[in-house]
Amino acid sequence: MEDEKRLARSLALGLTAEGYAVDVVHDGLEGLHRAADGDYDLVVLDIMLPGMNGYRVCAALRAAGHDVPILMLTAKDGEYDEAEGLDTGADDYLTKPFSYVVLVARIKALLRRRGTAGPSPVHLLGPLKVDTAARRVFRDDAEVALTAKEFAVLEQFVRRPGEVVSKAEILEHVWDFAYDGDPNIVEVYVSALRRKLGAELIRTVRGAGYRLEAGR
Protein backbone atom coordinates (compact mmCIF):
# COMPACT_ATOMS: atom_id res chain seq x y z
CA MET A 1 0.00 0.00 0.00
CA GLU A 2 2.96 2.33 0.47
CA ASP A 3 3.43 2.45 -3.31
CA GLU A 4 -0.20 3.52 -3.69
CA LYS A 5 0.27 6.26 -1.11
CA ARG A 6 3.38 7.50 -2.89
CA LEU A 7 1.47 7.56 -6.19
CA ALA A 8 -1.38 9.52 -4.57
CA ARG A 9 1.04 12.04 -3.05
CA SER A 10 2.86 12.45 -6.35
CA LEU A 11 -0.37 13.02 -8.30
CA ALA A 12 -1.64 15.48 -5.68
CA LEU A 13 1.58 17.49 -5.82
CA GLY A 14 1.43 17.64 -9.62
CA LEU A 15 -2.23 18.69 -9.71
CA THR A 16 -1.73 21.23 -6.92
CA ALA A 17 1.15 22.77 -8.88
CA GLU A 18 -1.26 23.24 -11.79
CA GLY A 19 -3.62 25.20 -9.57
CA TYR A 20 -6.13 22.55 -8.53
CA ALA A 21 -7.24 22.22 -4.91
CA VAL A 22 -6.62 18.58 -3.99
CA ASP A 23 -7.63 16.48 -0.99
CA VAL A 24 -6.11 13.00 -0.55
CA VAL A 25 -7.68 10.13 1.37
CA HIS A 26 -6.14 6.63 1.59
CA ASP A 27 -9.16 4.74 2.97
CA GLY A 28 -12.29 3.91 0.98
CA LEU A 29 -14.82 4.57 3.73
CA GLU A 30 -13.25 7.88 4.66
CA GLY A 31 -13.14 8.78 0.98
CA LEU A 32 -16.85 8.05 0.63
CA HIS A 33 -17.68 10.29 3.58
CA ARG A 34 -15.43 13.09 2.30
CA ALA A 35 -16.85 12.92 -1.24
CA ALA A 36 -20.43 12.76 0.01
CA ASP A 37 -20.03 15.72 2.36
CA GLY A 38 -17.75 17.91 0.24
CA ASP A 39 -18.38 20.11 -2.78
CA TYR A 40 -15.96 18.50 -5.23
CA ASP A 41 -15.72 19.07 -8.98
CA LEU A 42 -14.21 15.63 -9.61
CA VAL A 43 -13.16 12.45 -7.79
CA VAL A 44 -10.16 10.34 -8.84
CA LEU A 45 -10.91 6.94 -7.33
CA ASP A 46 -8.48 4.04 -7.06
CA ILE A 47 -10.07 0.58 -7.09
CA MET A 48 -7.60 -0.86 -4.58
CA LEU A 49 -8.56 0.91 -1.36
CA PRO A 50 -8.59 -0.50 2.17
CA GLY A 51 -11.82 -0.42 4.13
CA MET A 52 -14.05 -0.12 1.07
CA ASN A 53 -12.93 -0.68 -2.50
CA GLY A 54 -13.36 1.88 -5.25
CA TYR A 55 -16.30 0.11 -6.90
CA ARG A 56 -18.30 0.18 -3.68
CA VAL A 57 -17.41 3.83 -3.05
CA CYS A 58 -18.52 4.77 -6.57
CA ALA A 59 -21.73 2.75 -6.35
CA ALA A 60 -22.57 4.27 -2.95
CA LEU A 61 -22.07 7.82 -4.23
CA ARG A 62 -24.31 7.18 -7.23
CA ALA A 63 -26.96 5.46 -5.10
CA ALA A 64 -27.03 8.54 -2.86
CA GLY A 65 -27.65 10.78 -5.87
CA HIS A 66 -24.19 12.36 -6.18
CA ASP A 67 -23.37 13.17 -9.82
CA VAL A 68 -19.77 14.32 -9.34
CA PRO A 69 -17.57 13.08 -12.22
CA ILE A 70 -15.57 10.01 -11.18
CA LEU A 71 -12.35 8.88 -12.85
CA MET A 72 -11.49 5.31 -11.84
CA LEU A 73 -7.90 4.05 -11.63
CA THR A 74 -8.03 0.33 -12.38
CA ALA A 75 -5.53 -2.48 -11.90
CA LYS A 76 -3.58 -3.87 -14.84
CA ASP A 77 -3.92 -7.53 -13.95
CA GLY A 78 -7.52 -7.92 -15.06
CA GLU A 79 -8.82 -8.61 -11.57
CA TYR A 80 -10.85 -5.44 -11.98
CA ASP A 81 -11.92 -4.38 -15.43
CA GLU A 82 -13.22 -1.20 -17.01
CA ALA A 83 -16.69 -2.61 -17.68
CA GLU A 84 -17.29 -3.27 -14.02
CA GLY A 85 -16.00 0.18 -13.14
CA LEU A 86 -18.29 1.90 -15.60
CA ASP A 87 -21.24 -0.25 -14.53
CA THR A 88 -20.96 1.19 -11.03
CA GLY A 89 -21.38 4.71 -12.40
CA ALA A 90 -17.84 5.88 -13.15
CA ASP A 91 -17.48 8.44 -15.95
CA ASP A 92 -14.07 7.32 -17.18
CA TYR A 93 -11.24 4.97 -16.28
CA LEU A 94 -7.48 4.69 -16.55
CA THR A 95 -5.51 1.46 -16.30
CA LYS A 96 -2.30 1.53 -14.26
CA PRO A 97 0.44 2.24 -15.04
CA PHE A 98 -0.61 5.42 -16.83
CA SER A 99 0.99 8.61 -18.04
CA TYR A 100 0.53 11.68 -15.83
CA VAL A 101 -0.11 13.73 -18.97
CA VAL A 102 -2.95 11.38 -19.93
CA LEU A 103 -4.41 11.59 -16.43
CA VAL A 104 -4.46 15.40 -16.57
CA ALA A 105 -6.04 15.32 -20.03
CA ARG A 106 -8.80 12.99 -18.79
CA ILE A 107 -9.39 15.19 -15.74
CA LYS A 108 -9.68 18.32 -17.89
CA ALA A 109 -12.04 16.55 -20.29
CA LEU A 110 -14.32 15.46 -17.43
CA LEU A 111 -14.28 18.95 -15.93
CA ARG A 112 -15.15 20.49 -19.31
CA ARG A 113 -18.00 18.03 -19.68
CA ARG A 114 -19.13 18.89 -16.17
CA GLY A 115 -18.95 22.58 -17.02
CA THR A 116 -21.32 22.28 -19.96
CA ALA A 117 -23.84 20.10 -18.15
CA GLY A 118 -23.73 21.67 -14.71
CA PRO A 119 -23.62 25.13 -13.16
CA SER A 120 -21.79 27.89 -15.01
CA PRO A 121 -18.09 28.06 -14.17
CA VAL A 122 -18.26 31.87 -14.47
CA HIS A 123 -18.87 33.69 -11.17
CA LEU A 124 -19.95 37.34 -11.19
CA LEU A 125 -19.13 38.94 -7.85
CA GLY A 126 -19.46 42.71 -7.80
CA PRO A 127 -16.69 44.08 -10.04
CA LEU A 128 -15.15 40.61 -10.40
CA LYS A 129 -15.74 37.99 -13.07
CA VAL A 130 -14.02 34.69 -12.23
CA ASP A 131 -14.00 31.86 -14.75
CA THR A 132 -12.99 28.75 -12.80
CA ALA A 133 -12.86 26.59 -15.95
CA ALA A 134 -10.54 28.86 -17.93
CA ARG A 135 -8.88 30.03 -14.68
CA ARG A 136 -9.14 33.70 -15.66
CA VAL A 137 -10.09 36.71 -13.54
CA PHE A 138 -11.43 40.08 -14.65
CA ARG A 139 -12.05 43.24 -12.64
CA ASP A 140 -14.26 45.80 -14.37
CA ASP A 141 -13.71 43.88 -17.65
CA ALA A 142 -9.90 44.18 -17.40
CA GLU A 143 -8.13 40.86 -17.02
CA VAL A 144 -5.96 40.47 -13.92
CA ALA A 145 -3.00 38.08 -14.13
CA LEU A 146 -2.81 35.70 -11.16
CA THR A 147 -0.37 32.93 -10.39
CA ALA A 148 -1.73 29.38 -10.05
CA LYS A 149 -1.53 29.59 -6.24
CA GLU A 150 -3.17 33.02 -6.12
CA PHE A 151 -6.03 31.73 -8.25
CA ALA A 152 -6.40 28.64 -6.05
CA VAL A 153 -6.71 30.86 -2.95
CA LEU A 154 -9.19 33.16 -4.70
CA GLU A 155 -11.23 30.12 -5.75
CA GLN A 156 -11.78 29.21 -2.09
CA PHE A 157 -13.46 32.59 -1.58
CA VAL A 158 -15.36 32.53 -4.87
CA ARG A 159 -17.00 29.23 -4.04
CA ARG A 160 -18.21 30.64 -0.70
CA PRO A 161 -18.97 34.34 -1.25
CA GLY A 162 -20.01 36.14 1.93
CA GLU A 163 -18.87 33.22 4.12
CA VAL A 164 -15.88 33.21 6.43
CA VAL A 165 -13.08 30.97 5.11
CA SER A 166 -10.43 30.09 7.68
CA LYS A 167 -6.67 29.94 7.14
CA ALA A 168 -6.78 26.24 8.00
CA GLU A 169 -9.34 25.57 5.26
CA ILE A 170 -7.27 27.46 2.70
CA LEU A 171 -4.11 25.59 3.71
CA GLU A 172 -5.89 22.25 3.49
CA HIS A 173 -7.36 22.84 0.05
CA VAL A 174 -4.58 24.86 -1.62
CA TRP A 175 -1.39 23.53 -0.02
CA ASP A 176 -2.85 20.24 1.24
CA PHE A 177 -0.87 17.69 3.24
CA ALA A 178 2.43 18.47 1.51
CA TYR A 179 2.86 21.85 3.23
CA ASP A 180 4.51 21.93 6.65
CA GLY A 181 5.80 25.51 6.62
CA ASP A 182 4.54 28.75 8.13
CA PRO A 183 0.71 28.97 8.01
CA ASN A 184 1.12 32.74 7.60
CA ILE A 185 1.83 31.96 3.93
CA VAL A 186 -1.93 32.41 3.51
CA GLU A 187 -1.61 36.07 4.55
CA VAL A 188 1.02 36.59 1.86
CA TYR A 189 -1.34 35.35 -0.86
CA VAL A 190 -4.35 37.23 0.51
CA SER A 191 -2.23 40.42 0.47
CA ALA A 192 -1.28 39.73 -3.15
CA LEU A 193 -4.95 39.25 -4.09
CA ARG A 194 -5.91 42.48 -2.34
CA ARG A 195 -3.17 44.33 -4.17
CA LYS A 196 -4.25 42.98 -7.56
CA LEU A 197 -8.02 42.92 -7.14
CA GLY A 198 -8.76 45.64 -4.58
CA ALA A 199 -8.18 45.76 -0.84
CA GLU A 200 -11.88 46.18 -0.10
CA LEU A 201 -12.88 42.85 -1.65
CA ILE A 202 -11.36 40.49 0.94
CA ARG A 203 -12.17 41.38 4.53
CA THR A 204 -10.28 39.98 7.52
CA VAL A 205 -12.60 38.53 10.18
CA ARG A 206 -10.46 38.66 13.30
CA GLY A 207 -9.81 35.25 14.81
CA ALA A 208 -11.84 33.46 12.13
CA GLY A 209 -10.40 34.01 8.65
CA TYR A 210 -11.40 35.99 5.60
CA ARG A 211 -14.60 36.86 3.77
CA LEU A 212 -15.11 37.85 0.12
CA GLU A 213 -17.26 40.98 0.04
CA ALA A 214 -17.47 41.31 -3.75
CA GLY A 215 -20.99 39.98 -4.00
CA ARG A 216 -22.46 42.74 -1.89
What is the gist of this entry?
Helix content is 43%, strand content 18%.
> What Rg is obtained from the alpha carbons, in whole angstroms?
18 Å
Note the overall shape.
Answer: globular
Number of strands: 10
Order of helices and strands: HHEHEHEHEEEEHEHHEE
Structural class determined from secondary elements? alpha+beta
Comma- or semicolon-separated keywords:
216 residues; alpha+beta; 4-stranded antiparallel beta sheet; 10 strands; globular
What does this structure look like?
The protein has 216 residues and is of the alpha+beta class. The protein has eight helices and ten strands. It has a four-stranded antiparallel beta sheet, with helices on one face. The chain has a three-stranded parallel beta sheet with strand order 1-2-3, with helices on both faces. The protein starts with a helix and ends with a strand.
Topology:
Layout: H1 2-17, H2 28-37, E1 43-46, H3 54-63, E2 70-74, H4 82-87, E3 92-95, H5 100-117, E4 122-125, E5 128-131, E6 136-139, E7 142-144, H6 148-158, E8 164-165, H7 167-175, H8 185-197, E9 202-205, E10 209-212
Parallel strand pairs: 1-2, 2-3
Antiparallel strand pairs: 4-5, 5-6, 6-7, 8-10, 9-10
